[in-house]
Amino acid sequence: MIEAVGLTKRYGAKTAVHNLSFQVRPGAVTGFLGPNGSGKSTTMRMILGLDMPTSGRVTIGGHPYHKLPNAPRQVGALLDAKAVHGGRSARMHLLSLAQLAGIPARRVDEVLGVVGLQDVARKRSKGFSLGMGQRLGIAAALLGDPAVLLFDEPVNGLDPEGILWVRNLMKRLAAEGRTVFVSSHLMSEMALTADHLIVIGRGQLLADMSVKDFISANSADFARVRAPEPESRDKLTAALVEAGAQVLPEPDGALRVTGLTLPRISDIAHDADIRLWELSPHQASLEEAYMRMTQTAVDYRSTADRRHGFQAPPPGLPPTGPVPPNWGEAYPALPGEQPNPYTTQRDSKDVR
Amino acid sequence: MSTPQLPSQAPGYWPGTAPAAGGFVSPVPMRKATLADAVLAEWTKIRSVRSTMWTLGVMVALIVGVGMLIAVAVQGSSPAETNTASPLALGFIGVLLATICVITLGVLTISSEYGTGLIRTTLTACPSRSRVLTAKAVVFSLLTLVITLVSTLAVAAVHSSVLGSRSTYEPTGGDWLRATVGVSLFMALLGLLSLAVGALVRHSAGAITIMLGVVLLPMILALFMMMDSLRGVRDALLQYSIPAELAVLYGTASGTGAGPTGWEPVWIMAGLAAVGLAGAYAALARRDA
Fold first, then answer.
1. Which CATH number is A221-283's, of 3.50.50.60, 3.30.70.870, 3.40.50.620, 3.90.1150.10?
2. Is residue B28 within 8 Å of residue A145, measured between CB atoms?
3. Exposed, middle or buried: residue A351 (CB in 10 Å: 0-12, 13-18, 19+)?
């Protein structure tokens, strides 16, 4: 069990993590989500006692990491796949770590087998691909056979087979009763791997809920309805609203309709004598919900650079202007969507 | 092929099955790590990188090789060149060159971990930061001590047997001790100072540059202090520069008579290394890794 209470880290004027409180429970994979630079790695380093919090505290099983009895046997971590001496073989790297932590040397060959690096164990890690580096880092985390595991972006650089392997490994480790804390910036990956989600943006907690709750809170069914002309669209909107639906125009002229079933929408359109060009069922994706949640908390966002023609519109389409500052609002909160109790926090502007 | 520790069909193994009650307990025997474990780990780290072994090899080659070359050169000169200097003093040049290897290795022992980020993995495996630094200091200083001792003993033996007849000076037991054990201690302590600077600066190139400056600059600066008013500074720089202190251990100090004598260079270097290491311990404990 990892517990953070009011965890804050400042580097000079920059606040990397602000008043973060959460718990990571054993027996489940907890996903730690956030855009790049949102404070995930800083939080991981504070959990491991590598960085000292400016205020607040974080404990593992009730102890700060450096006071934990036999810490390397309780906690294993992958922080950075490139954090190896390139001139040292995978086996010697793991052996030195095992010796340092008082772990029997036979564990080195065991974990090399678990991550599938036994054939290149005696090769210098300089020649390893990023995926092999990730496997070596995971092997190092597993050395002490610990009850608490931290992985910082473990699927970066892995091929699809490797991603599947990591996903299954995480689930298996959690099923054994271990605490598994995995950071990622990919919602889609976490939706498949994690049981519980902790979402941060700009160092602040945005959501702390189970994946199931996150999905039901953030994805709503809606129908996309398209009418041929603006006049019929307005007429249809009025008719649907009268029938009790919530209707939102989409940028391309279609309508997002919630609150009515598809047959009912069709009947209303028929009664109003409006032809439909599209009537399709949709579900807002988790990725969309995550983007919406973190949009105000993204540190690094590209701006339009029209001079280089990167964003030149394809022929036949009306020219697009520069990306508006609130481009994320193209997907406003859906009418059928339950309000997310945590999103209000992102409005505090004190950490810019 | 060894069996993976994770049992393949045990209950609670696959997702969806209930986890064992009371949390996870590892079947791997549990033992508290000690300083001895950390020392063993450092020894593994040092010997498992080729560049370390190469640098140590170059160091031995410099001390022994240059020593032999000098022996050959002196022996080839005319027999009339007998003098009153100690034959052991000829080992000085090789050891002076070898200081560069000691500095480089001492710095890299810790700064390379910062360069790659490995230090975070190391400090996760051993949360006691002072233990990590102590293990590095123990392993590196002992390694330097042993290698320098063996090399300087070999060179001193050759020099005294081959060239002893060309000098009227008969080296005493004290001369022998200073030129072998004394020089080796001096080199090991210089290595510890480099390690401390590496831990403080955390940047390989920066720390090596600083250490080379510390070794070389005092003598160069002194060369250009020709004004009379600077005589005191110049003499101090000359007498207490690291090459000059090394020369004292070989019994070839510059003629002024002032400055360190006997075993004093070793104590001076011990003081410097102690101050440096104290700073390194304090910085390591206080700073974010």
1. 3.30.70.870
2. yes
3. middle
The per-residue pLDDT for range A44-58, each reduced to its tens digit, is 999 999 999 999 999
Look up the ipTM and state it. 0.86
Residue A54, both tokens = 């400016």
Q: What is A2-217's CATH number, 3.40.50.300, 1.10.1040.10, 3.40.309.10, 3.30.2350.10?
A: 3.40.50.300
Q: How many CA atoms lie within 13 A of A54 on its CB side?
A: 14
Q: Does B226 touch chain A (CB under 8 A)?
A: no
Residue whose tokens read 């009850």:
A147
Tell whether A97 is within 8 A of chain B (Cβ): yes
**Cross-chain Cβ contact A176/B3 below 8 Å:** no
Burial class (CB in 10 A: 0-12, 13-18, 19+), A28: buried
> Would you tell me the crossing angle of helices B242-249 and B183-201 to the nearest 10 degrees?
160
* B8 at A interface, C-beta within 8 A: no
- pTM exceeds 0.90, yes or no: no
B2 touches chain A (CB under 8 A): yes
Query: Which of B24, B39, B110, B119 to mutate against chain A (most A CBs within 10 Å)?
Result: B24
Q: Is A107 on the interface with B (CB under 8 A)?
A: yes
Cβ-based contacts of B117 with chain A (< 8 Å): 79-80, 82-83
CA distance A151 to A115: 14
Contact at CB, B44 and A95, closer than 8 angstroms: yes
